[in-house]
Amino acid sequence: MVKYLDNNSGFNMWNANQAATAKPKSRLSVFLWWVILFLGSWWLISMWSAPKNTPVTSEADNAIFTTDVSNVPVNELKSEKINANVRGIRISKISLNEYAATSNNDSEPVILFNSDNDFIEVGVNAIGTTAPNAQTVWRESDGKMVWKNSDGVIFTRDIGVDGYIVTITDTVENKTTHDIAFSPYIRMVRDGEKNSAGVATGAITNTNSHVRYVDWHKMDKKSYAYSTTNGFIGFSDQYWQTVANIKSPDQTMRVKSVADNKYLAENTAAAQTIAPKSTGMFTTTVFAGPREQRILDAASTTISGLGETIDYGWFWFFARPLLWILNVLNSFVMNYGVAIILLTILLRLLMWPLTRKSYTSSITMQQMQPELQRIQKLYANDKARLQMEMMKLYRTHKTSPMSGCLPMLIQIPIFFALYKALLVSVNMRNAHFLWINDLAAMDPYFILPILMGATMWLQQYMQSAHTKKSNNQNDVAAATTRAMKWMPIIFTIMFAWMPAGLVLYWTVSNMFGILQTYIIKKQLSKN
Questions:
Q1: Domain extent listing, the chain
Q2: Strand, coil or helix: what is 288?
């Protein structure tokens, strides 16, 4: 990207021309800028020093995760994809069998809701009778959980697993002589994970077909409540997601902080009446698994909207195809580092015509400089004539001041899209490449950032090799070129803590640019 900002770029030529024709700033404009700067600084300081409006935790909220459930026996829910502990109406310690917690081959699997007092509680609130709670001890009958209250109402729970979807079906038999009502609910309590910069994490809700994220820090300040006809609620981490959906209408959702680093996501549906001698049924589905697009899309047939929960950022229209291509390439080469290299080469080949045009345009702009300077001096007092003569000169040479900027403008969204794609890709996690054990994390030895900075400097040097040096302090383009010499150092420091996969992409892109510059120079020298 930096190469398009050198002394020969259309941007800097245009910048130099603008500087030559610009009017001196008035004292009023300078004063207004200082006022804006002062007001902006005052607003930032006031926001930073403002007291935090921490939500008050009620006794009811405290009771949710301090309830003693030690007397409730634990049963294990097992499947190919996940294992989990079932303690009455609570589910915890959900093991993702296909994903290791660390990059070691013998590592234990990732476990969700693994901290003390972390759980998913699926139950019903009763009106006119009693319902099972977290301390209720159920009996087992034919693989199902059964409990009978003092009024003779029978509760039967059937738990099934399909992939990463857990389905809880509650059947209530009203053996009384009067109507009773039940409202199903979901309650999730867990610790926060506040170290996933760049990815939307925290509570997640789908209300009226609209997906919302509530960051952990936002829940520290206040609680959030929503009403919806249907949807889901839960929590999202950088790579994992746990959401639940009640198959009942008219739901009320809330998310909030309930203690130090403890967060609550709760959903309660409208009450349903069960007549005497009748049976009611309530179904709740829970997704607990990776935030992988293919898996989420498949799960969307059970929990609608689940496939829209990955945050690809502003340039999602680039990020999703890039991630798809990256996964396809990896399916052939079986290594994500090699797949990133191939993706980089593919992108640079697609942009080859634009890059060549940009480079030739920068040479043309350099050749035009003597004539441009002559026109600027000749028509310094006639701005209209100056602009007309400059445009005539551009048409004669078949170029424009902005012709060198197009490759840069295309690379910016691709860069940010790939950055986001690498951050959200669970497959990139723990992906090995040479000395790197995790392409989604920083290079532990800083080898790639240093190599990236060195190739950026070499590419910048080759791009500006045909530039004539200028010691004129009023030459804006020359001043910009001198400033750009620091960019390799700045970028090296900035990229040192970025995902290694992204630094690998930028390094390979620089290497390709060096080769491309050499080839284009050879071609132009023959013409």
A1: 2-29+318-526, 59-309
A2: strand
